[in-house]
Amino acid sequence: MKKEDKSAIIEQLSETINAYAHFYLTDIAGLNAAQTSNLRRVCYKQDIKLVVVKNTLLQKALESSTVDFSELYGSLTGATSLLLSNTGNAPAKLIQEFSKTSKSKKPLLKAAYVEQSIYVGEDQLDALIHVKSKNDLIADVIALLQSPAKNVVSALQSGGSTIHGVLKTLSER
User: Is the pTM above the cut of 0.70?
Assistant: First the structure.
């Protein structure tokens, strides 16, 4: 491969990585053509981009980024494919579901960059499945802040109807 071709691929990989908020490094080697095609179909339906990359080119693309991805470089061995998504836990759920149905137990998680954190190793899959997005966390905080006010309003409303019921019963007697 010519140097110009490599630099074009590196630049394209950098743009692709920067276009998505989260990415996963996976190993899909060992999947046959039908399984790979099915994986690509499932990724497309869930708005996840699947890209098979060469490790050295991916490392150079990561090095050119403003974010420090040096922890991921150790995971760039063997066959590597990128799962890119704007939803942090969608690729993790896809990996878990797809590996259950696959005889080769692939794809395997190598590493991930999710919510500005780096996760390395297959054992991180369960943690990644339960990662909440920034918007989900904000919604949880707002719900917690509204909870005491809702309790007070509900107590006042139920208390008012109880008092009203007592007064009505007394007036009828």
Answer: yes
